[in-house]
């Protein structure tokens, strides 16, 4: 799994800082667009994401999921 995660790294997400909006003017009957500055993302600190984690940690997480899913077929009396 480590080799798999080394060859297939997750892509990093980027968060927008601006958004383009289109509105309809009720008086003139025309559409207009404007760019709005998003004020939430400059101070936004995301949680650790997959692309910041080492390959060995991702492989260990896959192995732990395998073990958790395998216990469905194990019966201990």
Describe the protein in words.
The chain has one domain. Helices cover 29% and strands 18% of the residues. The chain is built from two helices and two strands. The chain has 77 residues and is an alpha+beta fold. A hairpin with a 6-residue loop joins strand 1 and strand 2. The model has no long low-confidence stretch (mean pLDDT 82). Strands 1-2 form a two-stranded antiparallel ribbon. The radius of gyration is 23 Å and the shape is elongated.
The chain-level structural class is: alpha+beta
Biggest β-sheet: strands ordered side by side in the sheet:
1-2
Alpha-carbon distance between the two ends = 33 Å
Tell me the number of helical segments per DSSP (H or I, 4 or more residues long): 2
The Rg value, from CA coordinates, equals 23 Å
Series of secondary-structure elements, N-terminal to C-terminal: HEEH
Largest sheet: 2 strands, antiparallel
Report the sheet-strand fraction: 15-25%
Number of domains: 1
Overall morphology: elongated
